[in-house]
Each structure stands twice: as C-alpha cells, then as structure tokens.
C-alpha cells in the first residue's frame, strides 16, 4: 500500500521536463491512509513553498505568475490583448476540501487574486463600443475553485511517473470583482471613467460574458506548471510504501 505525498495534490488548485528523474522537494510530507484532513492540512502548509517555483526542476513561480501574451476573441466581437501580465495571490489560497482515491483526485480551494498588465481592446462591452489601450488591473477577492484531476502511470526508461492525464476545473466569483482600465476610449478620459464605473456596477454581467475564457487561460497556465512537476518526479518519489 502506498501513501501519497501531499504536494501531488497541489496540482488540483485551481484552481500543470525533463526525461531524467528528479527528487521531490524536502517539504513534501506523507499522509498515512490518505486521510482528507491530513491532506488538507499538509497541502495548505506546502502551497507557500511550491508557488515560489522549483529551480532544480525548471519549474517557474506561480506567485507571482508571469503570463505570456494573451489574445482573446470574445463575445460581441470584443478583441483583447494582454501583455506583461502578472498574477498574484496563489500563495494565500485556502484549501477547503481534498479527496484522493485511485487515479482520481478532487480539490476545492478559495483564492483572492489580482491581475495586472497592459491591454488593448476593441469591440463591444455590454452596451459600449470601446477602443482602448493602457494599464489593466483586475481584483478577484473571493474565487472558489473546484478541480477534478485524472492521473495515469507512464513508464519512461524503466521509471514509472504518475502524470496528469486530464483535469476539469470550475469556479465561481463569490465577491465583487473590481476592474481598473486606463484609457478605455483613447483621448476621452471622461467617457473612459463613465464606462469603467458602469462596468464595475455590472461586474457580474461582465464576468458572465467575458470571465470564463480569461479564467480558463489562467488555470491552464497554472496546470501546465504543475504537469511539469509530475512529468519530472518518478512515482516512487511521490509514494512511500
């Protein structure tokens, strides 16, 4: 019988290599019997370490998380480009529920995140046709993530790795989200401020229309980092007999 080391389950936030095998970080702690309360406690304690990155594995930081340029074609013909994106807050995520059984895992957690960067946008947001370029900041103070992960055992060069085969993530925004965009209408600061106020007053409708592809992109970035961890560490380094 194996006992799973808890960093494995951090892959489920969110809230994602080298072919040669590596050793797991020292701060991973085992949970006898995979009991949920133990896993919940140990994952919570591990998150602040993992989000700093693991240079020996070539794994980047997830807090801050530096995003690649993002190009989105959204509802209503809205086109958005994000550049120099920085996402902060994963280190303070709260683990609410963990369950691991067989090759399936479930993790629920709650995070307060902030995103800032440069943006360009053309198209329609609600009733307004915008044409803007400037600084962007989005604050999401209470996002609930539910993640279901499926693993598979993969053998490379005689070594077994337990890798992420698939994941499904859902989320809800449980407190008011705040948007700050400069220069939504080029050369017209008064109209920009008016539209920004309208967007913040109607934040739920804005997220209903545009939130999913943006959040999906962030979740994918995080899972790509965590997948690299599982690709690098042999299964026997994550299980203790």
UniProtKB/TrEMBL annotation:
<keyword id="KW-0090">Biological rhythms</keyword>
<dbReference type="InterPro" id="IPR010562">
    <property type="entry name" value="Haemolymph_juvenile_hormone-bd"/>
</dbReference>
<protein>
    <submittedName>
        <fullName>Jg13385 protein</fullName>
    </submittedName>
</protein>
<feature type="signal peptide">
    <location>
        <begin position="1"/>
        <end position="23"/>
    </location>
</feature>
<dbReference type="Pfam" id="PF06585">
    <property type="entry name" value="JHBP"/>
</dbReference>
<keyword id="KW-0732">Signal</keyword>
<dbReference type="InterPro" id="IPR038606">
    <property type="entry name" value="To_sf"/>
</dbReference>
<comment type="similarity">
    <text>Belongs to the TO family.</text>
</comment>
<dbReference type="GO" id="GO:0007623">
    <property type="term" value="P:circadian rhythm"/>
</dbReference>
């Amino acid at each position: 019988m194996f006992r799973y080391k808890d960093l494995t389950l951090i892959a489920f936030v969110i809230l994602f290599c080298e072919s040669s095998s590596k050793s797991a970080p020292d701060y991973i702690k085992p949970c006898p019997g995979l009991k949920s309360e133990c896993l919940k406690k140990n994952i919570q304690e591990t998150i602040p370490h993992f989000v700093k990155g693991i240079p020996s594995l070539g794994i980047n930081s997830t807090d801050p998380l530096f995003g690649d340029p993002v190009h989105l074609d959204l509802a209503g013909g809205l086109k958005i480009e994000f550049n120099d994106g920085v996402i902060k807050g994963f280190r303070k995520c709260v683990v609410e529920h963990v369950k691991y059984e067989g090759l399936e895992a479930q993790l629920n957690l709650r995070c307060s995140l902030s995103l800032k960067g440069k943006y360009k946008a053309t198209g329609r947001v609600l009733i307004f046709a915008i044409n803007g370029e400037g600084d962007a900041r989005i604050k999401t103070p209470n996002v609930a993530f539910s993640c279901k992960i499926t693993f598979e055992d993969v053998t490379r060069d005689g070594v077994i790795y337990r890798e992420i085969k698939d994941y499904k993530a859902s989320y809800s925004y449980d407190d008011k989200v705040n948007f700050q965009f400069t220069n939504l209408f080029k050369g017209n600061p008064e109209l920009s401020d008016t539209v920004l106020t309208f967007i913040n007053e109607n934040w739920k409708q804005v997220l209903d229309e545009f939130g999913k592809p943006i959040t999906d992109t962030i979740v994918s970035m995080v899972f790509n980092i965590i997948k690299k961890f599982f690709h690098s560490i042999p299964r026997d380094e994550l299980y203790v007999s």
